[in-house]
Amino acid sequence: MRELPDRRKVESAATFALDCVEALGSYRADVYYVARWSSYVSLREGVPEEDKTEAFWRIGLRVIDPHGHQGVSDTDDLSLNGIKKMVEWSIANCKSSQPDENVMLYGEKNEPMDLNLFDPEVLKLSHEDKVDLCVKMHEIAASQKKVKSVRGSSFGNGMSEVFYCSTEGLSFWESETEASCGVAVVMESGDQMDMGGFGEVACSMEGIDPQKTALEAVRRTAIALGGAPVPTGRYTLVLDPEVAATMVDVIGELFLSSNVHKNRSMLKGKLGQRVGSEAITLVDDGRLPGRLGSACFDAEGVPTQRTVIMESGVAKSFLYDLKNAKIAGASPTGNAVRSTGSLPDVGFTNLYISPGRGTLEEFLNTPGTKIYVTDLMGVHTIDPVSGEFSLGAKGALCESASDLRPVSGISIAGNLIDLMMKVSKVGEDLRFFGSTGGCSMVIEDVQVAGN
């Protein structure tokens, strides 16, 4: 396996690239370097399946001329000849591009802060440690009632690092570790079988719990096992935090300024207007300690920040990189994302719904018939312009938390803003799934198609 390049070699290559560009006189440029090391072990039906360790890195150069033409190229060759070729390709791509008066580089220097993103314990895990964890997750899941087989158990660890520098004088490194585990099970009830699972990923070992992951995989699969459709009608839905997080992701896409400016968001022109219930406050925060989406700076060197994009149902702000902020006459929010070989765009850091009051159990115990939704299918088919959707769902029909009757083969349809308006409660049980956070959520009067 290749080892990651020494940081001094990366810095030297980046400096050489910028020097080459500056020697041409009229160009500005930035360098974006990304490296990842990862190791992954998995079992299938308790038997070793995958065992791989990988290292990846690339360095990219973006050049900008005085008229706003920009070009990018990247390479994994850090030799002088490799960097020279990257510069040549970046210049060539710049000359063939269309001018854009909104393209710019960031030049304000800011001090980094410790966001607790690097846990050395993650990298200390041996191969045997990871195999043992997979075996334990397999055994825990296999011992649960109705589990016919444990289709897979997996554990991974790794680290990533980013280096950014520019002709504007910015230069910084950022790094983080990552640990992940997951379990997939097949469960049987009578003549019906279903497969489901659960996984966790975090920056530290404290952020995941393999034992709870195995049990959660079984719990979630069992809820809808042997389920049947409910009668078509209007129901109160109770979403668990993971399902709510998938909705948060979709809603968040509407607040990306690049989508707004390309007419791909139904929220265009709606800042300051109510687009959801008072129970919903959405936040993007790039400086949450110990979270996967956190970083001191974005992919353009702009400091990250906490941005409230929806407050008590009112659209408050879009998320911006430098270019889209200039188009809108707004300030950048530190939300630029890119690969080494692409131009910057707008993305999320840590996107989550602010916690309210109440727990999932309390919501399920509220009087009345409800559908407890544990899985939504086709969420990313929601039309971002019209907001229209039709989603498959499964979970359980319930009168209380102890009375769950499996449900599957149903669909919910409607309009996204109408759905957000019907959110009556948001729980206090905020959980992050990757870099997206969700809480238990109650949505009233939703049309459900069943039998």
How would you describe the overall organization of this protein?
With 451 residues, this protein is α+β, with helices and mostly antiparallel strands. It has 2 domains: 7-215, PmbA/TldD fold (2-Layer Sandwich); 227-451, no CATH class. It contains 10 helices and 20 strands. Helix 1 (7-22) crosses helix 2 (80-95). The longest helix has 16 residues, at 7-22. It is globular.
Give the structure's gist in a few sentences.
Helices cover 23% and strands 38% of the residues.
Set out the fold topology.
Layout: H1 7-22, E1 28-44, E2 47-64, E3 70-75, H2 80-95, H3 120-123, H4 127-142, E4 147-166, E5 171-189, E6 192-202, H5 210-223, E7 233-239, H6 241-253, H7 257-261, E8 282-285, E9 306-311, E10 314-315, H8 322-328, E11 336-337, E12 345-346, E13 351-353, H9 360-364, E14 370-377, E15 388-400, E16 403-415, H10 416-421, E17 423-426, E18 431-433, E19 436-438, E20 441-449
Parallel strand pairs: 7-14, 13-19
Antiparallel strand pairs: 1-2, 1-4, 2-3, 4-5, 5-6, 7-20, 8-9, 8-13, 9-10, 11-12, 14-15, 15-16, 16-20, 17-20, 18-19
